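Sat 14:20. Reprocessing the chain from the morning session after the first attempt stalled halfway. Input below, unchanged.
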Amino acid sequence: MRLNGFWVLLSIFTLIYFTECKLVPKFPVGDPDNGGLILPKGFEALVVVDSLPGAARHIAVNSNGDVYVKLRFPSSEGGNAALRDEDNDGKADIIKVFGDYQDKGSYGTEMRIHNGYLYFSSVTRVFRQKLTPEQLVPDSKIELMLTDTQPPRQHDTKPIAFDDKGNMYIPFGAPSDCCQTEDRTPFSPGMDPCPILVNRAG
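Finished this time. Tokens:
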């Protein structure tokens, strides 16, 4: 009887286990039309969110699936958006705008998670906020990490990279694509020598 009881319990457990696995897939199922994308065979896509209070410029995904979006143009509520999927269908159920920081110009570029901090940037500044585990929107103080003291120019957005030692790398873009006499003008010759090679270009 003990042996039979054991097998009965094991059978019930196995049935529940496989039923639960079937009801809750490991990954969300793609949209029937793959969100309007044409994908290679074997790939699927779904639309996580189809509208935000501003154009998205860059995203970072936390280890728990929360998505952080750097808005291209900050709104009156902030320059970042946080998204959370609560029912594991891959769709954002909660959308919150946050990040009220000083911004010179537009084109906020970077959103990156590194060592428990959320890093983001405007045209001339790099900021970070400490993330709290399982808390969607950080309520920590916004720290200013870097300021570009030059007036905003072309290519001044501030993407961010880190190396294995924790050093942070920020580009300072050149104010011209090709050092033309009249910038972005067809057939305008390049300046020789190019003055922006001194500080801002390579």
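Residues 1-24 have pLDDT under 50 and may be disordered.
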